[in-house]
Design a protein that fits this description.
globular, alpha+beta, single chain, Neutral Protease, domain 2, seven-stranded mixed β-sheet, 5 domains, Immunoglobulin-like, six-stranded mixed β-sheet, 782 residues, 41 strands
Length: 782
């Protein structure tokens, strides 16, 4: 996840041209959405908006430059700053904002700083005007004061919320960003800077760019960071770090840990080299001279230019180094060097998710599973009132916005890739990076690069996903197979049954043939609501599968996917049933767990005793707590058909027996009266495990069943129930239609977009190690 400043940033636009046009679009949004002409006009209007954007200047002296010297006084939450600002052009009265209470002044008697307004909010902001002598475009200001906004929870656990602060100087650590308004912020988008930080000798400081000075005396640590690359904001992070670094060719991998751990740091340094090498080869050379893993004092997962800020628990999770960590590294290409224009849609999360999270799964042969899970998340979390077009996505703040801004967006890039082929797709993203490095870019700019690389008009296919709300939904019917001469013909009807107009789709089809190992595969175009299929095949067809590898962004039918935690947590309302017959300490533990679900689940959670509910509702999700719950026995039939066996001492899941003692279980199924609503059963043997289970449950969203061990608890089993009756599968022989025993034929293998680079390989070529492996341990309280 890329870091987004909490204070609204001005984009690189001319207000009279772009903002008036965007306001007009916003005012007419609902009218356009309900009109067939909407999806044809909006791309044109977006193009007109983007035409108003000025070309970013490339010259170094076109950016405001800050030369900052900062002294941090941790115990008093204070900073003392001298900032020499070089302002391009000849403006004599530049305006800037700064955190309230810092009282800026200039030591130059010819420069006057006048306070104008004060604005309250999460960070109180004051605005100023600097009056400069004629012909002067460089001036110095000094200021000092307190910045202390203690971290607060940022959203539900289910929303992947975490503790966050707009700015804090404290004994726990220092976090200052653009949202802190800790440095003068002018009416401009991109800046360059140098930052000299002085702080206690047992502490260290990290920012963007390269570290050009690093000294320590008995009482003082001095670190200087310089960024000649244009940035959107300046970060300053400090803590009692132990630092580690290793140079690979033209960049340095660094790690800053609050608790010394050379083994952990070494793994992250090597992983940094591994992933930067892979993306160098796929996209273009890494845009910075260092990348640092930085341990935060809060539980965060943030990506900044040239470093990532991970919480102490997060960075020690064993899977993070191969999942979230490469995602944050890749953001240095997308989002942290090519900048989105947020008012016109944040494309960077989707392409990063596709080229990191999805591609790493694809390298392991799990690409289809990842796409299916993304489509299921959209189906389960994005109801009609929660949907929106990609041009309205700025950042993730709940599962619905994630399902659109990440999931729908990554599927857009996947569909573009399938339509163009890997070589052209790679050419397009390389061209996009080359053209817009350290510039602002939009969905429109991406489309132009795809068109340029392919020499094709892609507007119709592309903009339907970018500008429209919603997704297609498919229905297959009337599938038959007829023999004539030496061939067979498969016929069927395929419909788009979503409300509104049709989408232009490229629909993959697989037909399994008798005595053939591999399925017959083809792709058909579909631009109308109904398409009659007629496909000749060379052998007897056994089954027909529509979109067998989850290649189309669409709203899935419930019977295509198994019940999962997403379906329970994604419901607007949940009823939690407590077991009334248990002893008080067990009841209290489950009641506390139910309260935790209000922070990890649906918008509304009702909690009731099992004995007080005569019949389970069909209009909300239901969570049944405890082996002793009367509804556990009553609803056992809901799990019929799955390989699930209960005894007084054990649970057997898909043939694996797990003792109830010392274990916690989470099992999902569907309400037999309403398949859109889920039942979730949760029972534990050790009450101490409930708090950890509540915290972890949202992170296992795609699974149908889970088993955990111990008090922590530790996951020991997870999986998804099989799908028996997918409406996207038709069995073509009468004798197969009830038994459903014909397996789909093998599909043509697909290569990952990029091959994984082994850790040994990353020492070759562009990032060949120069054997520099400097490790420094700092004294102090770790």
């Amino acid at each position: 996840m890329r870091k987004y400043t909490l204070m609204k940033r001005k984009t690189q636009v001319e207000p009279p041209k772009i903002f008036n046009t965007v306001s007009l679009l916003s005012a007419c949004w609902e009218d356009f959405r309900s009109d067939d002409i909407y999806s044809r006009l909006l791309p044109l209007l977006l193009t007109l908006c983007i035409a108003a954007l000025p070309e970013p200047a490339a010259a170094q002296d076109s950016y405001i430059h800050h030369d900052l010297t900062v002294r941090l006084e941790i115990s008093s939450h204070r900073l003392i700053v001298t900032d020499t600002i070089t302002y391009p052009g000849k403006q004599r009265e530049p305006r800037f904002v700064l955190h309230a209470g810092l009282e800026p002044f200039s030591p130059d008697p010819n420069v006057h700083i006048d306070k104008k307004t004060t604005r309250q909010g999460s960070v109180p902001i004051e605005s100023f005007i600097a009056t400069l002598p004629k012909g002067v475009n460089s001036f110095t200001i000094q200021y000092a004061g307190v910045i202390y906004h203690p971290a607060e929870s940022n959203g539900k656990i289910q929303d992947r919320g975490f503790d966050m602060t707009p700015g804090e100087i404290a004994e726990e650590g220092v976090y200052l960003a653009g949202s802190s308004a800790w440095y003068p912020q002018f009416d401009t988008d991109l800046i360059t800077f140098s930052l000299n930080v002085e702080l206690a000798a047992t502490w260290d400081a990290v920012s963007q760019g390269s570290r050009t000075k690093y000294e320590r005396t008995h009482s003082l640590r001095t670190a200087r960071w310089e960024s000649s690359e244009p940035q959107q904001e300046i970060f300053l992070v400090a803590s009692p770090f132990t630092s580690y670094e290793k140079t690979f060719g033209n960049f340095t991998a660094m790690a800053f840990l609050r608790t010394p751990d050379a083994v952990l740091a070494g793994k992250y340094l090597d992983a940094t080299n591994h992933y930067i090498t892979m993306y160098d080869q796929l996209i273009g050379l890494y845009p910075y001279r260092k990348f640092a893993l930085v341990e935060n004092f809060m539980e965060t997962g943030l990506g900044m230019p040239s470093f990532t800020l991970l919480g102490p628990t997060v960075l020690r999770l064993p899977f993070i180094i191969n999942t979230s960590y490469p995602h944050e590294i890749l953001h240095n290409w997308w989002g942290n060097s090519v900048y989105p224009v947020y008012e016109l849609g944040n494309w960077s999360e989707g392409i990063t998710a596709y080229l990191a999270d999805h591609m790493l799964q694809e390298q392991q042969g799990q690409g289809q599973d990842y796409r299916l899970a993304s489509l299921q998340k959209y189906t389960d979390y994005v109801s009609r009132g929660k949907d929106f077009p990609l041009v309205k996505f700025t950042s993730r703040h709940n599962p619905a916005t994630e399902a659109v801004g990440y999931g729908k967006s990554l599927m857009l890039f996947h569909m573009m890739r399938l339509e163009l082929g890997d070589p052209i797709f790679i050419t397009a993203i390389r061209d996009f990076y080359r053209k817009y490095k350290f510039r602002f870019a939009t969905f429109d700019d991406l489309e132009k690069c795809f068109e340029s690389a392919s020499k094709k008009d892609l507007k119709a296919d592309y903009y339907q996903w970018v500008t429209r709300t919603g997704a297609p939904k498919l229905r297959l019917s009337d599938a038959k197979a007829v023999k004539h001469d030496n061939l067979y013909t498969v016929t069927a009807t395929l419909e788009q049954v979503q409300s509104g107009k049709s989408y232009s789709l490229h629909v993959p089809i697989a037909i399994t043939l008798a005595e053939q190992e591999h399925a017959y595969q083809t792709v058909i175009g579909m631009s109308t609501k109904k398409r009659h299929l007629k496909i000749d095949v060379p052998a007897e067809p056994l089954r027909l599968d529509i979109d067998p590898e989850s290649d189309i962004f669409r709203r899935l039918d419930r019977d295509e996917i198994p019940p999962a935690v997403t379906q329970a947590l994604g419901a607007k309302k949940m009823l939690v049933l407590l077991p009334a017959s248990v002893e008080q300490k067990v009841f209290d533990a489950y009641r506390k767990f139910a309260e935790m679900l209000t922070h990890a689940g649906p918008d509304a959670v009702d909690v009731m005793l099992d004995r007080d509910v005569k019949q389970l509702p069909t209009d909300c999700a239901v969570t049944i707590l405890g082996w002793e719950n009367s509804y556990f026995e009553k609803e056992l039939s809901s799990w019929r058909g799955y390989e699930l066996v209960f005894t007084k001492t054990n649970v057997t899941i898909l043939g694996t027996e797990i003792a109830r003692a010392n274990h916690a279980f989470v099992l999902t199924t569907r309400n037999p009266e309403n398949k859109d609503m889920a039942f979730m059963f949760i029972a534990v043997d050790r009450l101490q495990s409930l708090s950890g289970l509540a915290r972890k449950l949202p992170h296992y969203h795609k699974y149908s069943y889970l088993a955990f061990e111990g008090d922590e608890p530790r996951n020991i089993s997870k999986g998804r129930w099989p799908v028996f009756d997918s409406p996207m599968t038709a069995f073509l022989r009468e004798k197969d239609r009830d038994m459903h025993h014909v397996m789909m034929g093998k599909l043509a293998p697909r290569k990952a977009l990029a091959s994984p680079v082994s850790f040994r390989d990353t020492h070759d070529g562009n990032h060949e190690s120069n054997a520099s492996n400097k490790v420094e341990g700092l004294s102090g309280n770790h």
